[in-house]
Amino acid sequence: MVRHYPLFLVLVFVNEVFCLQSSCRGEQDSLPVEGAGGCGCGKLKRAADESGTATKDPADKYSAEANERTSGASEDGNKVQSQMVLIPGGEFLMGTDNPGIPADGEGPQRSVHVDPFYMDVQEVTNQQFQSFVGATGYVTEAEKFRDSFVFEGILSDSVKNQITQAVAAAPWWLPVKGANWKHPEGPDSSITDRLNHPVVHVSWSDAVAFCSWANKRLPTEAEWECACRAGLKDRLYPWGNKLNPKGKHYANLWQGEFPTHNSGEDGYVQTSPVESFPANGFGLYDIVGNVWEWTSDWWTVHHMTDHQHNPTGPPSGKDKVKKGGSYMCHKSYCYRYRCAARSQNTPDSSASNLGFRCVSREKR
């Protein structure tokens, strides 16, 4: 498979996405990331393969039949399926007229109706994804590509010393050979003590395959945002407008100076076990923070202002929408842990802060 990497445009100068580490370091202070600021997550993209298509529909192969063979339980007897809660749907205001990052297409605020649906209370965990792989033999795209993007701050010195490339737009992102869902920081890491953490290094296509196996699907962006808001109107976060009400942390985010120092005031410097922070009003944990979550929608920054019923985004595109931010988000650099915030990646992209959760019209 021939792999091509995208170009990053800054004013009228074109820079290669990958460059020698020594040259990338010098750009960190002077080169803005994603225009309005960001962790660079949206730059972690793979190009289409040599056939011209990013991926075939993974749902074709990994269906309910494989799920039924596992009887819904892992080898140690723990439940594979996440608990699901009813999201009542109805009318809500999607987006915002006061965007934190206007270039992301957060606005305008618009009236949207979504039908009721069920959503996993938590992000899909390593243990659940492990059960899926054990039942189906599924191989993720990161495993096929033989590398994935990892935040430099969580890599061991031995792994970093072997890397000579970085993302020009965000030099704290490094392509690590052998990084995948089983080895989140490369070959010298494992998920043995992180089975209850969200799975990472899963592409959109990987997420669709898991959801299909579990008789579920990915949420639309409208469904995800409706669930995030939990019935609250014109609020920044799932719990209100204050980031840390009464000094309490409600999400796994970055504290300190990004990207050099994460103080871990919330208890974590990378992913946290699911359900480590309070749930929102609908009973959803980590709906913002911890890891980014894929949605089913294709990316666009132009939205209809007319009232919409169950919108699904544009019919085609190059990138898929992801929501919720991650443990790397900080207001000074990636203010995307708001319900209205959004970002994008190509469907075959993967990274150490990117996961998903599933939804269904019926409770599973």
UniProtKB/TrEMBL annotation:
Source domain of life: Eukaryota
One Pfam family from the record: FGE-sulfatase
UniProt keywords, alphabetically: Signal
Subcellular location per the Swiss-Prot or TrEMBL entry: Endoplasmic reticulum lumen
Sulfatase-modifying factor enzyme-like domain ranges (all copies): 83-359
Compositional bias (Polar residues): 69-80
Location, primary (coarse class): endoplasmic reticulum
One Gene Ontology molecular-function label: formylglycine-generating oxidase activity
Record-linked Gene3D superfamilies: paralog of FGE (formylglycine-generating enzyme)
Biased composition regions of type Basic and acidic residues, renumbered to the chain: 57-68
UniProt-recorded name of the protein: Sulfatase modifying factor 1
Annotated region described as Disordered, given as residue ranges: 47-80
Signal sequence annotation: 1-19
UniProt-listed InterPro entries: CTDL_fold (IPR016187), Sulfatase_Mod_Factor_Kinase (IPR051043), SUMF_dom (IPR005532), SUMF_sf (IPR042095)
GO annotations of cellular component type: endoplasmic reticulum lumen
